[in-house]
Specification:
It comes from Pseudanabaena cinerea FACHB-1277. Keywords: Cytoplasm, Ribosome biogenesis. Belongs to the RbfA family. GO terms for molecular function: ribosomal small subunit binding. This is Ribosome-binding factor A. This protein is α+β, with helices and mostly antiparallel strands. Helices cover 58% and strands 19% of the residues. It is built from four helices and three strands; from the N terminus they run αββααβα. The chain has a three-stranded mixed sheet. Helix 1 crosses helix 3. It is elongated.
């Protein structure tokens, strides 16, 4: 069992390397259909499994195709991570779409809408 600090350090290295690979090394055109960024990597305590969270900006079709492309490139990414980080055992990689940014934007727009409605209500009451 690896220490918590080592798990966090290896997860950050994996996140950085996968981000670079998506940007430069993956030749699949489907990955470029939506703007892709790696938002997080969660590594299990035994360093055997990693969940890589990606944020994809684009249409639903572009998101689906990008996720398919990432799934098909998993073998390449795993091999490259093993070579670049020189790990004894390379963790199994699973990609997950991160939609937290969209939820944040939605919540922010609702807050702004409520604020505008409150200002309009206060303005109409003072008249």
């Amino acid at each position: 069992m690896a220490t918590t600090r080592r798990v966090a350090r290896v997860a950050e290295l994996i996140k950085r390397e996968v981000s670079n690979m998506i940007l430069k090394d993956i030749k699949d055109d489907r990955v470029g259909m939506g703007m892709v960024s790696v938002t997080d990597a969660e590594l299990s305590g035994d360093l055997q499994h990693v969940k890589i969270f990606v944020s994809i900006y684009g249409t639903e079709e572009a998101r689906a195709q990008t996720m398919e492309a990432l799934a098909s490139a998993t073998g390449f990414i795993k091999r490259e991570v093993g070579q670049r980080l020189a790990l004894r055992r390379v963790p199994e990689i699973a990609f997950h779409e991160d939609r937290s940014f969209e939820r944040g934007v939605k919540v922010l727009s609702l807050i702004n809408q409520l604020s505008r409605e409150r200002e309009e209500k206060e303005a109409s009451q003072s008249d």
